[in-house]
Amino acid sequence: MSLEGKHILLGVTGSIAAYKAAVLCRLLKTAGAEVKVVMTPLAREFITPLTMATLSKNPIAVEFYNPENGDWHSHIAMGEWADCMLIAPATANTIAKMANGIADNLLLTTYLSARGRVVVAPAMDCDMFAHPATQHNIEILRSRGVTIIESPEGELASGLRGKGRMAEPEEIREAVESLLSEKKKSLQGKRFVVTAGATIEAIDPVRFISNHSTGKMGYAIAGELAARGAEVRLVSGRTSLPVPDGVERIDVLSAEEMYNAAVAAFADADGAVMCAAVADYTPAEVSKVKIKKSDDDMYIRLKRTHDIATELGKVKGNRILVGFALETDDETVHAESKLATKNFDFIVLNSLRDKGAGFGVDTNKVSLIDRSSREDLPLMSKRDVAVRIADRIETILNR
Ligand code: C5P
Predict the structure, then answer these.
(1) 263 CA distance to ligand 1 middle (Å)
(2) Most buried pick, 11, 214, 269, 270, via CB within 10 A?
(3) Which pLDDT belongs to residue 384?
(4) 185-397, superfamily in CATH?
């Protein structure tokens, strides 16, 4: 039972997804946690305190005090008790109040007193979720160390489709478990640079050349290295992905900007993982004004960009350098040649011919190739691939 002995304070707010809080409560209990529940007054309209009290085997706190006997519900004691305060579902209203330190109900005062980790699973309609105010508030919470459980795309209670629905209880339990499981800080004191995402090469103020990379693999690697205690600088092309906990993101657009940022960050690093899909060519001249169309065909002269990995490979010494190869043909030959020319310690090969591998998807099927061995991994989540890559980095560091 992975949550054995952990104290989880489940905060329930007034969202239609509150019915899922009952399942979540049971899953936490089955995993061994002790669960107490605090609800906002409106949450009672969606799920009864009796249900939550029966499932959690603890009385439910909603008001600051019991009006019948004046018994005080101490938010400070609850905040101290909780190893994790998990707010699921969290409405736009509660998230906004949390971001602004508003404390007009017991759930919010408890949040402000919480000493342990805080996890928030947003639940709202897609337009509310996409609203810049909500997104800004979520970013504020994230920057203060709150773990946000991504809302998946899907059908909403309103009948609309989009992002905003609460993640499934099983996924929330897993996230809490991995947050509370004492990960060995095996990379404490190490610094890593990770490049991720696509670069954007301007043709004129309106058009650009880019590629399909979304950065998911690089972000997963940055998150895994940081979870193991490393200091991670993530040099990232444009993406809508959230910054993983504990990672410093350096935003870049072009290959030139990525080159400058990666070289600077590598100066005092112990290693780098080159995950970005960097443009190999960029327009030789960038027009200052929007290029007008004519009846003729058009040619854009391209010049080579720096190969960032090759440059880092030249100065790496005994530091670690990991690369990626995304191939469509002669995969092994190309990967082995890159391993040598770019001076990688090992290269992660993925083929666009494999189903479930490559751009945008959450899974990947890779082979880890070094100078003396090759490991073919099955199709797995990008998070698990990141774990395998981080394990291998540790093995090299401990040699
Ligand atoms: O040669 P190719 O682009 O296939 O090599 C892929 C590897 O090299 C990846 O690790 C990628 O991040 C890195 N790379 C780079 N700078 C470039 C091109 C590729 O760091 N300009």
Answers:
(1) 14
(2) 11
(3) 85
(4) CoaB-like (3.40.50.10300)
Long-range contacts of 23-28 (CB under 8 A, 24+ apart): 23/169, 24/86, 24/88, 24/169, 24/172, 24/173, 25/52, 25/55, 25/56, 26/55, 27/169, 27/170, 27/173, 28/3, 28/86, 28/173, 28/176
The Cβ-side half-sphere exposure at 67, using a 13 Å CA radius, reads 2
**β pairing state of 281-283 and 302-304:** antiparallel
Residue tagged active-site, from 58, 93, 211, 260: 211
Q: Residues enclosing ligand 1, CB less than 6 A? A: 195, 255, 274-276, 278, 280, 305, 307-309, 323-325, 338, 342
Domain residue extents for the chain = 7-180, 185-397
Q: Which atom of ligand 1 is nearest to the CA of 255?
A: 21
Question: Do 7-180 and 185-397 show the same overall fold?
Answer: yes
CA of 380 to the centre of ligand 1 (A): 23
**What's the pTM?**
0.64
| Whether 328 contacts 279, CB under 8 Å | no
Is 211 one of the catalytic residues?
Answer: yes
d(CA 207, CA 377): 38
Q: Which residue CA neighbors atom 5 of ligand 1 most closely?
A: 325
All residue ranges of the chain with pLDDT < 50 are: none
* Domain 7-180 bears CATH identifier 3.30.360.10: no
185, two tokens: 């800080």
* Distance between Cα 48 and ligand 1 center (Å): 55
What pLDDT sits at residue 171?
A: 93
